[in-house]
Every structure is written in structure tokens, then in C-alpha cells.
Amino acid sequence: MGRTILVVDDEKAIVDILSFNLIKEGYTVITAYDGERAMQLFSETAFDLILLDVMLPKQSGFDVCSAIRRTDVRTPIIMLTAREEETDKVLGLELGADDYITKPFSIREVLARVKANIRRTIQAAPPEAVTTEGIVIDTERFDVYIDGQSAELTQREYELFRFLAAQPGKVYSREELLHEVWQYDYLGDLRAVDVAVRRLREKIEHDSAKPEHIMTKRGIGYYYEP
Prior knowledge:
4-stranded antiparallel β-sheet
């Protein structure tokens, strides 16, 4: 596959089992056991995906995720957490993580999430730009421009917006968006979709509290209004 993954966790047993199985799948794996080392490696190496534990010494996974997103909105980040609290899951997503996996996890689930996240970042898009009322979707640069300015979307946010905009007015349920955009079947909490929509509105809409483009169909799902 030729893809490089950064695995960050302070538990050696978890790092070892993740590394072993990822290497078996053909990935190159680089490891770190604390937040500071993770940031150092990130500054030195281009990664295709980051598996990032929340509870880390020296610098938390939340802090690492936030710092990475200040300079890199494209590299997929999957948070690993032993916590069950809803606020912890949402915080990671709000900081720009693409997904989270709660410990204890199955290796099969981790590999499926890794494969899905890497696959979506390398899929080719047709060389075209779609324009609507000051919004330009540039599929060559994988970017969205609002009144000429980059919206600085993460890869997940870009794909969600592009998917919805491709069929204006069509309502998609959270389950459908998770399958079509996240590219795996419903495996648990759908809150990731809600958070991604909220973050997308904050970057796309002139007033996120009164959206004009990313609309909600109460009790059903979301749709795009040109």
C-alpha cells in the first residue's frame, strides 16, 4: 500500500498490537508514546493517517489534534479513547478529528476504519469546479472557496459538503451519510455526523445559526440548498 501511519498511545501493549496488525496489512508504522514526541514526528514526516490516543503524557491527544489542525486540515485523525463520556467524544470531533474509536476495540474495527479513511483521501475526483452563489467547490485542489477565500475545510468536511452539494435538495439520513461519506457501515454513535455538519456550517454559512445551504430536515437528516 505504501501508506504511513503514526500510532500514538502511552500503553506499549496497545502500540505493539496496533503496529503488528497494521504492518501485516502493508502499512508503514511509526510510533510515539507521548504528545510531544508525536508533534515532533508530525513535523518531520508526512503521514497518511494518525491514530491518536486521548490520554497522553506531556501533551494530551486533544492538544495534539488541535495543534495539527492549525497547519494540516487534510491528514485523517482517528482518536482512541477509553472514555465513555459524550463530551470527550464530541470534543475530539470539534477539534478536527475525523473519527474516534472507544477502547476496548477490536482490531478488525480499527483496520476497517483506517482503510476507509485512507481510501477516501486518495480517491480521484474529476477536474472541475462547481460554483453556486459565491461558493466554489474546486475538485482539483480539494478545497471550497467562499467569496474567493478558502474555507479551510478538513478532508472530511470537504467530502461531506461535496457529497451534499452534488444532489441539491436530496435529504440524507445520518446513517446514509456515515456510509457514503465516512465509507463504512453504521458501527455506533452517529454524533460524528452532527458535529461535522455543525463545523461545516461554521465555515460555509454567513450565519451558522441561520443556515442557508446546509439544511436540516427535522427527524430525517440533512440536505444542500443552492
